């Protein structure tokens, strides 16, 4: 193992704070501080000399894992969890590397949330910094080490530390520098200043935190600069929770004219944004700087100094802090994803139309065997444009979104459905309207689409100036016009394709990759099938999935079954918790011979299953939403059962399953609650 090379550095780090460890922290000197190995898995081994715990292939096989569980914790204030670890392996790049995962287990949830994961091997210790948002919920930390391929694979934990504050804050008094790292440059680098680095002949300052010889700070000096514009970068940990507010720090500049000191943010895709630049001449006192910092998705802060030559002096940095309150010089209204999104259930939200006339109408239809309802629930409101009854030749309907601050990257998602057009191209388009320049830039338009199916569109865009999103529906000729429907518009900061947006939360399943936590029960030799597009039999089954319109869903193919035959999906065993849970999913029951769809609760130790919800017979050509509220303090399973009806037109489909802690109190259709078991066709007025 490659552990001994890091012990001296880690011992200094551990001893500095071992006398007063906060809750949720441990240096593994004599014990595991209340962190326990979970019995069902490999044990974490405490090194005989202290300093760390580990698991390796000398005691286990590839693929086996060790799980460490913390005592009950609570973060009533924003906190930072730091993990000092090492993943070591034999030489080469194994296709199946070891992995270290960290989960959060909340007391009222049946699923553990994957919070962080690492698999990169190293020959020294690494630091992970994880932001914990303040919450009154109690939780446990679950650390899972999974051994990969290799005869000498090992995973070690040297320290776990949970402290109040933000992970991007630092006074540089700790040996691990709060997870800040210097981007190495052959000539200019950031170093730790203060302490023994300063003597009576030094031009370097005292630190700002302690204002004495004992304190520390970071500095970069130009003495070894050899080229014009040589750059030194000090990089913060990447944020792991959304935050917005004021970033402040203290700095000193020497020889201001020969260096450029700037602060940038950088996201996971490498996109830089300057948020501050030194403008005052250098002096020998600590200056306070403030910069507006917004990180709705993972970002890191980069303190960058560019020197023009070897006489550029030095730049010193200390006491980086963050406040969720915006800086005093903040003038622009911050972006709110809630204000920029709408499902049209109550009104148009912050969207509006041209004053000349209303091109879009908010409607609510009765979903039945001929017409589909909205995308949100199948029973709610959506926007409709370009009908044959209201459109005129040359008709254009524009829907404007709220103003969006400039110089930000946005992800626009919405659902649309089109039917009745002879020519579909450009019947619906999205433009970006730059307010200051009255310029409209088309960023998306319909080329071709399955008719009558709710389709998802995703668009990532970025503009330097304040903008608005404009949805435009076009009817060139009265005889070409059909129906254009729009629903569930969301606008978020960041790329639509960033990893954190693509990863589904625990307890959610769209069936896009696999069957998630569900498995088939095959005792009746019948099964659910995963499919995309239409089902093989006409006049039954969906035309597309609910998630995107072109993705996957689960269904039973009635032509392969006989009347009364069952197909059952079983969830994996779920952890029992106190309080209510809400299970939501979308179902499709269209066809003259449609049978039954049931949801059962199977408690550990019980031989009988409890019926939670049922639908019988043909319901609608639309996807409809089910909301099921239940409570269970024991380990349990959820079972989804479909029963074939009297004819081959009995395909039943499900999609977009979601488990959530809490009640289904805000559901819109009370008849779909777990109590009632209504088996009639859903009815709702126009």
TrEMBL record:
Q: Matching CDD domains, A to Z? A: MAM (cd06263)
The record's listing under PROSITE patterns reads: MAM_1, MAM_2
Q: Which InterPro entries does the record associate with it?
A: ConA-like_dom_sf, MAM_dom, MAM_domain-containing
Q: Name one Pfam family in it.
A: MAM
Enumerate the spans annotated as MAM domain. 24-169, 168-329, 340-498, 507-666
The cellular component terms of Gene Ontology attached to this UniProt record, alphabetical and capped at eight, are: endoplasmic reticulum; membrane
Keyword check for Signal, yes or no.
yes
**Keywords, A to Z?**
Signal
Give the residue range of the signal peptide.
1-18
Q: What is the name of the protein in this document? A: MAM domain containing 2
Q: Which gene encodes it?
A: MAMDC2
